[in-house]
Design a protein that fits this description.
The complex is a heterodimer.
Chain A lengths: L11 H12 L2 H13 L2 H32 L5 H9 L3 H5 L2 H29 L7 H12 L16 H16 L2 H28 L13 H9 L3 E7 L5 E7 L2 H13 L3 E6 L1 H5 L2 H14 L7 H5 L9 H36 L4 H14 L4 H35 L3 H21 L5 H29 L2 H9 L9 H26 L13 H8 L3 H23 L1 H5 L5
Antiparallel strand pairs in A: 1-2, 1-3
Helix pairs in contact in A: 1-9, 1-15, 1-17, 2-3, 2-13, 2-15, 2-16, 3-4, 3-13, 3-15, 3-19, 3-21, 6-8, 6-17, 6-18, 6-19, 6-23, 7-16, 8-9, 8-17, 9-15, 9-17, 10-15, 13-21, 15-16, 16-17, 17-18, 19-21, 19-23
Chain B lengths: L2 H27 L15 H7 L1 H10 L1
The chains are: A mainly alpha, B mainly alpha.
């Protein structure tokens, strides 16, 4: 079957910016710095760059290549592309994962996007002066309705409802306009704007110095040290039962020298140095680094494969894939790594920032930091507008696979497809916003779809590329029209190393996040996600699983009905 | 921050910046859709079927 491609990108730069926009999101500015600091800058970055080379780039190139190949056959969504490439009918159902992931993630991502817009507006027009993190935390709780189900549905300036409607409409207007006039045009303006705002905030953060002379250890240099120091210097104290427990971490050389001198005179205090090698021996560091690369590059989301299916057969995929990945890395390491934690440590110190998760850092700690900064209202508004822009470019990409699938499988036009997907996502998003207590619905979706299924899809993709399509043919296809060549070593990496590494990381992820195994202590306890389903059943968690299952069943039924998917078998 | 921290930061930020700069340079200097390294165009099987090229390829292979 040869089907005419109806839509396409208008330029190579456009598709690169669209893919980079899809990859650059909240994780670049909030998740990455937290992970790097927790696992020690140097060791984490080593594992991070290795993961970039052996899973990030290979899966990225495989997705770009398979997407373009599927697009030449007239397919723009993963069920059709997988079916077309493998000629194995079961793969159209496995391909459903590539539509399910972005659609489900969109349901909660747009909610977080609305938080960012709401915070930007509030910093600009209202009083956001917080004197403690607990105050900004209370504001966040009230803003998103974390205390009670249904309480997020307000439409005041300090409630999320109005912003949610606004961003929902914005997303669907842009997606309705199509690839080149909607997504591409928006990303062409949004990505440079994002970079300019990030550089402005970076300059502000790096020139903060020591804002409070009474607390000289709270300065930019120590903030950078907390993020980047390769050797972790931990002060431990002896408790009543004689065990050494971690007290705090030291990041600057002078304090370290003084503390070591003091510890030599004390019997209950000691300073331990955790070297890069020791940190690299921790499997959880590798899991964190691989996970960060994985989620940051948007591989395994079903987005890149759909975007690249709109390329022509002569369009380059290798340089475009590398350029989009490198843009994401620049935003993550070069900008995110220098902004978030240094700013937070400068105002709150290392102890006030350590152990904060993505939401804690972004919506509890940073608002308090901006509130205490000169011209904090302006910089707070700019920072959250930056996060908002990054989120919009990502959420747009989450809609396109669903649009493409419905258009392709139901033989409907873009307008009808947008309306249908709009109805599905309104129901899902409404569900997430209503069940806001403890962000339970959001958290459950993020774990099972936004993490678990992404591992599954990535593994499937690299196996299709390396083993079913075949690495030789895959490389031939990748190099058609290419501006640069993939080094030959990547044949071995993409066929053997990437799938193996991915499977090992996936197994470790299941061991730690599902069965709660701690590799350092050896203790295991079922995670909250398992407890919510099987040990202490939680109604909201089960309803969320039912919603995900219903959407998956709907998509599978649509794929089953489509005659084009059924036509293709190995005989073809 | 310790001196090793400065080195790690400079290496990390420098390497991603250099990679991006190189990619930007290549994207803006290599002309679009004319950069064929191989001189062949891999067709998806269906396109080959529709243009009759598959049968020609098969015949050549048999020889």
């Amino acid at each position: 079957m040869v089907k005419k491609i109806k839509e396409s990108w208008s330029s190579r730069l456009g598709v690169i910016l669209a893919v980079a926009g899809s990859a650059v999101g909240l994780g670049n500015f909030l998740r990455f710095p937290g992970q790097a600091a927790e696992y020690g800058g140097g060791a984490f970055m080593l594992a991070y760059f290795i993961s970039f080379i052996i899973i990030g780039l290979p899966i990225c190139w495989a997705e770009w290549t398979m997407g373009r190949m599927g697009g030449q056959g007239g397919f723009n969504s993963t069920p059709g592309i997988f079916n077309y490439i493998t000629r194995i009918p079961a793969f159209k159902y496995i391909g459903i994962i590539g539509v399910l992931i972005p659609v489900i993630i969109y349901m909660y991502y747009v909610y977080i996007e609305a938080w960012c817009l709401g915070y930007a507006v509030n910093f600009l027009v209202s009083d956001m002066s917080f004197s403690a993190v607990s105050e900004s935390s209370d504001f966040w709780g009230g803003f998103i309705g974390v205390g009670e189900n249904g309480s997020a549905l307000g439409f005041g300036l300090k409630q999320v409802g109005f912003y949610l409607i606004l961003v929902f409409i914005l997303n669907f207007i842009l997606i309705y306009r199509g690839l080149s006039k909607g997504i591409e045009l928006f990303c062409k303006f949004a990505m440079p704007t994002l970079a300019v705002i990030a550089v402005i905030i970076l300059i502000r953060v790096l020139t903060l110095g020591t804002p409070n002379p009474e607390m000289p250890d709270r300065n930019v240099s120590n903030g950078l040290g907390f993020m980047w120091n390769p050797v972790k210097n931990v002060v431990e104290v002896q408790d009543e039962s004689g065990n050494w427990v971690k007290d705090h971490e030291i990041v600057d050389q002078s304090t370290l020298d003084a503390t070591i001198a003091a510890a030599e005179r004390s019997e209950t205090t000691r300073v331990t140095h955790i070297t890069v090698i020791q940190q690299l021996m921790n499997p959880q560091l590798w899991l964190a680094a691989a996970g960060q690369i994985f989620f940051s590059l948007s591989v395994g989301f079903g987005v890149i494969i759909t975007y690249s299916s709109y390329l022509t057969k002569k369009d380059d995929v290798i340089l475009s894939g590398l350029a989009a990945a490198s843009a994401n890395e620049f935003f993550e390491v070069g900008l995110g790594g220098l902004i978030t934690l240094p700013a937070a440590v400068t105002f709150l110190g290392v102890a006030g920032v350590a152990g904060m998760g993505t939401f804690g850092l972004g919506f509890n700690v940073l608002p308090m930091v901006f509130a205490n900064m000169p011209f904090g209202g302006v910089f707070g508004a700019l920072f959250f507008f930056l996060l908002f822009l990054a989120a919009v470019t990502s959420s747009l990409s989450m809609l396109q696979p669903g649009i493409a699938f419905l258009e392709e499988a139901l033989k409907i036009n873009r307008k009808q497809s947008v309306v249908l997907l709009g109805m599905i996502t309104v129901v899902g998003c409404g569900f997430v916003v209503y069940f806001s207590e403890g962000v339970k619905a959001l958290d459950t979706m993020d774990f099972w779809v936004g993490t678990f299924l992404i591992f599954v899809l990535s593994t499937v993709q690299i196996i299709i590329f390396g083993w079913i399509l075949g690495i030789e043919k895959g490389f031939e296809l990748a190099h058609a029209g290419s501006a640069i060549r993939i080094p030959r070593i990547f044949k071995f990496i993409m066929k053997y190393v990437s799938p193996l590494f991915l499977i090992v990381v996936f197994a470790m992820w299941i061991a730690t996040n599902v069965f709660g195994l701690n590799f350092q202590t050896g203790k295991a306890e079922y995670s909250d996600y398992i407890r919510d389903l099987f040990i202490e059943p939680n109604t909201v968690a089960w309803l969320t699983i039912c919603l995900i299952g219903a959407v998956a069943a709907l998509f599978a039924f649509i794929a089953y009905l489509n005659p084009d998917y059924r036509k293709l078998t190995k005989k073809d | 921050m310790t001196s090793s921290g400065w080195i790690i930061m400079a290496l990390s930020v420098g390497s991603v910046s250099a990679l991006l700069a190189w990619c930007v340079y290549k994207v803006f200097t290599v002309p679009e859709e004319s950069e064929h390294v191989h001189g062949f165009e891999q067709e998806p099987p269906d396109v080959q079927e529709s243009t009759g090229r598959t049968s020609q390829i098969r015949r050549r292979t048999r020889r």
